Amino acid sequence: MKHYYHPMSRAVTTHWMLTELDAEHEQVVIDYTAGENNTPEYRAINPMGKIPALVDEGVVITETAAIVAYLADKFADKGMAPDVGSSQRGSYYRYLFYPGTTLEPMFTFNQLDVENLSPQSTGWGDLERCLQTIEQMTPEVDWALGPDFTAADVVFGGTLDFAVQFGWLTSPSPKVAAYVKRIKNRDAYRRSHDESWH
Ligand SMILES: N[C@@H](CCC(=O)N[C@@H](CS)C(=O)NCC(=O)O)C(=O)O
Asked: What average pLDDT does the segment 94-103 reach?
C-alpha cells in the first residue's frame, strides 16, 4: 500500500489509522505547499489534487473517511469496525459520513461568514444544529460505539480534534473536550501526530 501524505494535512488522520492498525505501508510525502500535488503524476492518482490518497493493489482510494473505513475492513481482525449487517454498523456509518458531508461544509461556511444560507436547504443546516448533534453523538465515556475504540472515533473524533486545533470549534462543551482529550491520549495518536498536536 502507498499512502500519500503530508504532516500538516488531513492525511494525519489516515496516518493515525494506519498506526492504530500497525499496517505496513509506504509513506509518500506530497508537499502540497510546494505544489507537489499538482504534478500530472499525482493528478493521475487524485484529480482533486488532494491528500490523503491510498493506493492498494492498483486501486485508488481518496477521501479520509473512505480510506479509514477501507482500512478497518481490510484489517478486520483488528476489530475497528462492527460486523456488516449488525445494527451497530448503522451507527458506525453515521459517524463515518456525518463529518465529511455535514460538519466540514458547516465549519467552512461558518468561517467564511456567508450570509443568507438557508439551514433548511443546505445539507449541513447551521452551526447551532451541528453543535447540538455533536453534543448528542459525542460519548460521555469510552468511544463512539461503546467500550471499543473503532474507525468511527478516528473519523468523528479526528474531525472534532481538527476543529478544536484549527479554531473552527472555539468553545467545545466539557463532554466534547474530554472526548478529544481521550483521543489525543491514545498511543497511536501520539505516535502519528506532531508534538504540537498532543
Ligand atoms: N475531502 C478530502 C479533503 C482533503 C483535503 O482537503 N486535503 C488538503 C490538505 S488538508 C489538500 O490536499 N490541499 C491541497 C490542495 O487542495 O491544493 C478528504 O476528506 O480527504
From this structure: 98
